[in-house]
Queue: 4 jobs
Job 1
Amino acid sequence: MNHLKNEKSPYLKQHANNPVDWYPWSKKPFVKAKNDNKPIFLSIGYSTCHWCHVMAHESFEDKQVAKLINDNFVSVKVDREERPDIDKIYMNVCQMITGSGGWPLTIIMTPDKKPFFAATYIPKDSRYGIKGLITLLPEINTLWKNKRNELNNSADSITSALQKITLYKEKKELTQKTITNAYEQLLNSYDEINGGFGNKPKFPTPHNLLFLLRYWRKTNNKFSLNMVISTLKQMRRGGIFDQIGFGFHRYSTDRKWILPHFEKMLYDQALLLLVYTEAYQITEESFFKKTAEEIIEYVLRDMKSREGGFYSAEDADSEGEEGKFYTWNYDELNQIVTPEEMDIITKIYNIKKEGNFLPEVGKIINENIFYQILSIEDYAKFYKINEEDIFKKLDGIRKKLFKIRKNRIHPEKDDKILTDWNGLMIAALSKAGRVFNNKYYVKKAEEAANFILNDMTKDNGELLHRYRRCEAKISGYADDYAFMIWGLIELYQATFDIRYLHSAKNLNTYLIDHFWDKDNGGFYFTSDKNEEILTRIKETYDGAIPSANSVSVYNLAVLSRITGDINLEDKARQIIKTFSDQINNMPSGYTQMLIGLDFLFGPSFEIIIVGNKGKKDTQKIIQSINSIYQPNRVVLLKDPDSIDLSLTKLVPYSSEYSQIKNQATIYVCRNQKCQLPTTSIDEMKKFLIENN
């Protein structure tokens, strides 16, 4: 075994038996490289990455390739999910050098960590004009020996260019025009036939959908809402959704959502759960609630740890083949279901003897993906059958197939627990619990939050990033704080347990103290205590997941309104000003940040309920508020019978609020202008809806 044998990361464990003499990222390999006068061969990936597996089997398990690497380089393996700080630095390098990025990421650099070569997947042997490792590695070794000065100059230039990325030009206030421009950019890339944006591959990008829902709320632009509704329905009916076991796959390789890349990520489940929950809040269509509940069923069944936190991901591959766990042979299906059931799934799910992978999405093989070519509603109308009966029959078929599938060899599960992704799931479960009035969902969010706060937080308030097999390790990044704060804010508004609000405030203070750029504004990705690698970067782009700066705009605005601390709202505005140039250049790439900006623009509401949490009149008010789609609002609960003064300490102005005639009383403020208190739910709802 190589030097990865004692690592906890599932990805690093996958490479512990490679003939390549891998080191984990630490001082040791860099000291060795300097002493041996060798460059560093850095490989970055993650456990559920399909092409990482391909490169590993093809090259890193190959003795010929291993000898070339071991003889001429010091090799370092990094799990991008454990060390996103390293990944983000060198992914920026790859994009600068090659114009694109992805995983596996291959970097060759000097012993002082300065890169001079970058690529993604590299085959073992040269093909299709791409140099393979067998050819490439000796060429780089020759350059290292004979043209060292040129490589060092190149590495210095790349490092200098990388350090300039964090320098931001013009700083100015954004206007409503930026939000409108973002909408128009999304509109221009919208696929009216299939839903979603762009051509292929097609990603869910839930924060784009959350942004469009808020745009609809503000402008009453019905097409903005229709884009979201259509996209959510098409995705749920497509192969990107696991029709048998639930949960969403990573992305679709085609524009019709049919053939997915089969890995499942925790963050996708969390962010999509938020969107389906809000879509139900707006439309009250059971389709969206059912999909949200199915996502939760998958997560609680397959991704929940005994400790209370949530696992990271499930692989796309099983038995060395991508998607094998999820696809079905026609004859196999025929033996499992009855002829009547086979007829139903053939018509609804396009099941075929020759397989249903369409020519445009992949090679036709004798396998089937479950995706709805015909909606259940249309099937029921065409065949004049009761919709509810079809739902029951399909659920019975699904359970049969799920039972059979359970006995297959499962894809590998990445069972590390990441604080940032757990924060997203805590936020999503808390919101779903509120909207669906489901205490069980809230309880599961609490279990995860308590685990992070108790087992992944140091006594000084510092978060740790990763937990696996009883070990919490790696200092937290800005994502860990921002996403966890978001989760705790949502959890407070689901439980009104003041502990969660205190924790959110404390984490926010730590984030500002250790991540804030005092000279230029905005949050660095790493704290002033983290290892610095070439430069401290700031993440702003909302890609697969939103950036910490984007989520923090919303968090700061909400905490400011809840606590009355206007300095926090000033910080939110500073973040937007700091990155205003990039946002204006491509506003649709910053939709999560624009969600925070929308909150700041308003209208926004502060609702203070004075009532006993356990009494019916208070619960009715809470449920009524939760039924209304009003994302730009904060809710605070003051229990007049409580002798706990912690709320007053955290929210000083709350001491001024009292009940009317010993009844649960509602105080509503719009854009920091308050209405007279009321005990009438109808009066409150009328004000909220009319001033939405």
Note: Residues 326-405 form one domain.
Job 2
Amino acid sequence: MKTMNVKRGQVSIFVIIAVIIVALVFGFFLLRGEITIVEIPASLEPVEEYFLSCIEENAEEGIEILSSKGGFIYLPDFEAGSEHMPSSNYLNFLGSNIPYWYYVSGNNIVREQMPNRNDMENQLEKYLEENLDCDFSDFRGRGFDVELGEFSSDAKISDINVEVAVSGDLDIGFGEDNTRISNHKAKVNTKLGKLYSEAVKIYNFEKQNSFLENYAADVLRMYAPVDGVEMSCAPKIWLKNDIDNDLKIALENNVQAIRFGVKGENYFVQDLSVDDSVNVLYDRNFPTRIEVFESKDGVMMAEPVGNQPGLGILGFCYVAYHFVYDIVFPSLIQVYDSNELFQFPVAVIIDDNKAREALPVNAVFDSQPELCKYPNKDVRVYTYDTNLKGVEADISFECLGQRCDIGRTKTEEENAVLNAKFPSCLNGFVSVKAEGYAGKRHMFSTNEESEANIILDKLYDLDLELRVDGEKTDNYAVINFVSEDNTQVVSWPEQQEVKLSEGYYNISVYVYRQSGISIPGMKKEVCNEVPSAGLLGIFGGTTEKCFDVDIPAQELTNVVSGGGKSSDYFIESQLQGNKVIVSVFSISVPSSIEQLQDTYNMLEVKPIYVEFE
């Protein structure tokens, strides 16, 4: 009985061994295509080692491009910019184009183009397959036979390295030794994956919190006129170029102060934990759009209230202003350590003085006016100068308060023409803008007309001189040239040149001097007719109601001291000179509010003389 148990145990062991052998044989045949065991002769190892170092070097080049271009080696299709986004879908930084992760397209649509990690791996694989060109000539010169066949690559990006596998036959021979190596693996120690993850964290934080826009909105209110009231009888004037420069410098200095960590009391620290160092950059030379809706021809002006006829009841003058800004500018975010850097740009958007609303992940929204989505009328637009020579110009179409950017006329032989589709509209306007020419608005009904011929008047740059009583003055003055197609507001003496085109102009000049007029505080009784109470009020009955108005004491620093109004037609031959001289007469400096209003009445009939040299 004991012998039988021993024999059974031996059989069981043999059965187990047989099963294992069968499994191994089966696994070998099943996986033999995947398993390559290569015994490389020692004499041939230097060739494979060189090939692996060549793979690693090319991978490092691709990784560097990915890091410097926001995760791209092969850039997305180019999208031209416009007045809404002047830099296209790329930011040019130090001569290199970097795709925006978030931007405004040329047709005013907000878009995203952020690559994911798989996209970066695919791009690196493509880069290796197109650029891996290892030079085996040194080995061949020493008697080696080296042949590299067709190959493919695979890349895996982790937080601490990038693993690259190249599959392709490398045949090596030297003397009696020969081998074929088909799988080649290299590893690059890099934090590309980690820096990318940190960049995505910051990007999503910006999308959800608009922290860049919030800083920009604060900068706007600190460094530019937005809302305010000042006691003055003279208009307040700002030059838009000066405001633009001030804002760009302020943005440059403030944006780069942004940091990440525990916010605490530090205004510039964002409450976001980031493991690596971060720079947030804006350069004043980056393409930037700053639009002020209340500015005209580069001048922002706020008129005083209280010195107009009929407003003597106020007893004082004040200037109230409210300007609305749209601002779009790029910001470059760099995540880095001591050896590596990953960077990507985003567009920062201020709309009507406010930061854009936070966006959900993968948000893409359309801000195109509804009218512009349905262009269905074929229209041809020609643009000429006064000599009927073609002038290339930007064309837009306005209808019912909406404006569509259509395109640009292009030179064809002697003409500048645009063939495009316009929205259907009755009594719309074709708006034309060309560098060096006055803008033009041409009434046009696209549902009735198919061709527009528009003549543009050339703008002439002229030096300007203001004379009071025959002498050039340095006193502050506001000079207005207003025509149908060209309005110029000049703040003298800060501005001493003007752009004029042929046309009929209404001209006005207000010259101001320091007065030091002190107006004491007072109380006035003001009586007005108001609707009667009860049944009489229903039928239009009124009654007089009086109330007291407290007028605070004030100092008027500037009051009108000269000027006038007139109209004139300027022909092109006059404008071809170098200088325009505007001459006006002085008036007595007022010493009271009542006299101040009289002086404005006097200016209505004072003449202005304009001559060209």
Note: The chain has a mean pLDDT of 84.
Job 3
Amino acid sequence: MNRRRFMQSTGATGLALATLPTLVDSFSVKALASGDTGLEQLLDSTDRILVLIQLTGGNDGLNTVIPYTDPKYYANRPTIAIQKNKALRLNDTLGWHPSMSGFRSMYDEGRLAVVQGVTYPNPDRSHFRGTDIWLTSTDSDVFGSTGWVGRYLQTMAPNYPQQLPEHPLAVQIGTSLSLGFTGPNGAMGVSFRDPDEFYRLVNSGGGGEEIPPGNLGDTPAGREVDFMRSISRASNVYAGVVKAAADKAVTPTTQFPNTDIGNKLKAVAQLIRGGLKSRVYMVSWQNGNFDTHANQVSTADTTQGAHAQLLAQLSDAVSAFMSDMKTNNLDDKVAGMTFSEFGRRVAENGSIGTDHGTAAPLFVFGKDVDGGKVFGNDPDFNNLDERGDLLMVNDYRNVYASVLLQWFGTSKTTAQSVLYRDLMPSMLPVFKSTVSVNEDATPARCSIISMSPNPASGPVAIRANVNHNAHVGLTLSDMRGRIVRTVAVDAWTGLASVDVSGLASGTYVVTLTADRDVTHTFLQVGR
């Protein structure tokens, strides 16, 4: 038995047990579930929720938000284009796919915004690579091992998993936890198909392999067993909390569509209504449904077919979800966005479909979204890349920056360290109001006063400002989110030293934590 087989066997029953990082064996369930960590107060004070909807497979943006006045759209798609008179008017040049009446209503009501031409420089047309790039918030030539949501949640809970909140920080409705929820110290959330099934499985053994008894010590086998024990124990911690929130939720008055994505958003709404304090939720289709290489539309009517059904499911499910939130006076604390690993090619293929492309629109929705607007220009068919695909209008990380800075109210320094890039002035202001931290007006309780030399190729002297009673830590991470140095800090003097000899040249993130306070800066290695 090994951890891969353990994950596969437990995942087959519908429970993703790989939901939390490894914990030391002496860390008790009682301690995990207690409200004594202080993180519960943090979750209470930051009660905004983000719902991420992944359009797995690569959504065809040109048949979603249709440039119905551009003849080149129709010239490139003689078989699959949506007729101008059937598109739902969005503005003078763009129209919604006719199956997206729910999105059209939300847009007209100012509760949904369209962000055009979203991708990144040198986009990758591989499903797996493209998805990883979006989840890790990296460039096409950087292979990240942590996710942007996971890194953000780690800043909220810098001592995680040694100190865990009573409620999970993030929830994914699905069979396995997304790379996007992986932080520097491990996974930052839980994943399950259904709250009741989650509870039943972890309280009845779950149908997984039996974990061997005994203490095998610090051996490969012992470490595997410790890993599986910790996963099983961590699942038990959150099973009751999730089940209690699901049971507490009032019966919805909104009718959710009985589809895969509709039922998943219904479960998210149930947990939010029941008081679960998780900050981020993620849902996706069960398979790569948006990979529409063939038979994307019906030959009898291009407004019908596989793609039309997916767009209808998305539009109807999100519309029902936000209606449920509004009915229960929760819509002011919930926002969401869609994302897909890439768009489709401008020109149709020979199979009544479209192949892997580049840029595509995404959608941001919620009461506080600056909706009824299109951010970015219409598709430009006169200016395509060397393969005849759309060029980038908006970098996806500019949308992430808006989520972090405007919606969650993180500081600019924290957001930059999470996204591995300078955010200004490229952030898209997709929200009407912001709860961002004013770093100039509010001095941090922990800060890095000096770091010299910078750039460096050897020892670096660091001077920090911290509370001498705080639990202080300092790490050096590469741009993939991997910790390469852990540094001791003298809390009384604020002095630390790190030797970067032997590290590859490049930019590294220096993270200083003092209890719940966290700050970041950058160190250049090499000359």
Note: The radius of gyration is 24 Å.
Job 4
Amino acid sequence: MSEKKLAKDGAGNIGAARDMVTQLQEQAKNGQIDGALIDQLEAILNVSVDTADDKQSEMQSDASKVTDVSTAPTMTSVPSSSASTGSDLGKDEAATTAPTDASSDPTKPAFTTKPTESSKPSDDDSDSKKESTVDESTTVTKADEPLSARPGTPNLMFDHAEDVLSKLPDFIKAMTNGKMGEAQKIAGGKSNEFDTMFNVAQTAILNEGGWTSNNMAKLNGMAASDVLQKSITAASVPGVNLIRLAKLMLPVYAGLTQRLPADSPKGMGSTQATWRAQLGFGALGEQNFFRIAEGNIGVNPPTSFLTFNSPYDDISTNDSVTLKALRASMGYADPLQIGVIKAMSALLRGQERVILGSNNAAIAAPAAPTVAQGLPSQAVVATGSYMVGVTALTYEGWLATSKGGSPAVGETTAAYAGQFVLGSGSSITLTWAAVPGAVAYNVYFSGSGASAGSAAAWNQMVLVNKAVISKLSTGSYVAPPADTTVNATYGIEGLLNWCELATVYTNAIPSKQTITDNAGAGLTTGNGGITQYDTVLSSLWTNWHTAPSLMVMSPNMNASLVGKLQTLGSGNFYRIDVGAERNQVNGGLMVSGYVNKFAPFADGTPRMIDIIPHPYMPDGTVLFISETIPYPMGNESRGFVRDVLLPYTYFPLPSQAGGVNQTTYNFAITTSETVECFNPGPQAALVGVDYTL
């Protein structure tokens, strides 16, 4: 490397810069660059770091090659010949700051290196005279490679960092493709290895897209410019697309969202999605095949469709970063990245809930419950006259734990049984027909002697259509005066309602598979399987020629399934692994699929249905979802599609609240989409299952 000469007018500045370069050299050895030092170096040398693309790997490489301040490479700043475009991200570009040298030739360096009296090292700086060597065999990565495809630097140093970084590209590829099992193998066999890799991958993707505290000027201007055009899905969509980060995080936070295919709207200019759903051959008169005369053209197969219109549901989160936090964290974990990851995690959780349980139309109120008096030996409620009623809750109402009154949300009005008299004191057992679209029920019970339903107070919430009252109600919660389950302005119909409702978006679905009501009983076994599951699967195959590919249930329901299956045959369905270490035994049973014995593949092998024990699924309900369509009409083979109007998008926000300026950097992340079902008839559900029985 040839020696450069220092210009006299730059002697004072370079003298101050020399010590910073030395510190940067030491930090580069550890793979870290202090942002505060870069800011100071920028101010002294009058060059812009923030407006350049990602140069971290180049700075590390350059720092490791510097042998002494006197032989440091030229620091050049030349004007850009053209405006920055979306294709600039991740590529080399010249700095846009004008040169400080008196020369008018922009191709000449702003500074040339030449030792001066003020820049010569003192005797105490003997260590700075030592040359740092660079291994000639070291692989130099291309600057235009994305961070996720080349070794990067994690925010936190930990053991085996090189191993983690070497696996990072393959890990990101597997996760963004939805192959979480493959990603776990790449990360290693332990959960902490996956967590470490996952955290590093999130940071790498954000670095690649320019989401850093040093890049806020770009982030603020991206909604109105094309600086990161590659990250924006369409010219009409403002903000920055965070799809790649979301795809990395979806398998961890939102399994259903990740599983459903995503599509863009068929047409723009409307806040509603429109699509046509297939109804199969329900109206085909197959008996007419038996008497077709010679020469007759035979049966005309019907083409049946329904047209649906749905709003797009807006899902948003927001966060802020204080200016003090930005400054205090320089050189460590980037607070803006932490904020974006936190906001995205919360958004994905909320989005998963919406896709699973959102509702648009009101659900029906329950029918009046049937009252049965327990044995006197179960005497827990005093003798007297009572009134009891039941309301139904949507998924939203269940999450909100609505308990009646005017603040209720997602709760129907109450249906009351006639006034009844308890003799000799007893418990009370209530049963009622399950309500399609309901995931929980509130029970209201009057005190002794009450004769009006309005006097009944909230007693309990149950997840099945059966309840036992063993104590008097307390508190002042009464049934809501009006139905609050409708959500036509903001809500969409989620998977629960597509599986349970016979009318969706005002369209009655012909021959819709009705819900299977287990009426508060437990699962039973028979014929090599679960009787209730087989009843649903047999009906779907017989009536719709459809085999569901996915079953969604709560973890408790899955545990109940495990227990029931263990009672089949000899019960030896679990596996035990004996390790080399003395007294070490690993064992257990997990059900991840269920055999559909009614719908074989063409080769005769049984069809296995995937099971998701979903943490957001309420107890008592099992969904049977058909993700494909067996009918060759409409050029559509997908059962469900997420129609995305606005993708995962980042918005910088004004740092104001109530008209008061704040020393914070605010932003929001949002998405807008709906769930489209192209095969609504055979989507099915089993409800009212008591997993404790």
Note: The chain has 15 helices and 30 strands.
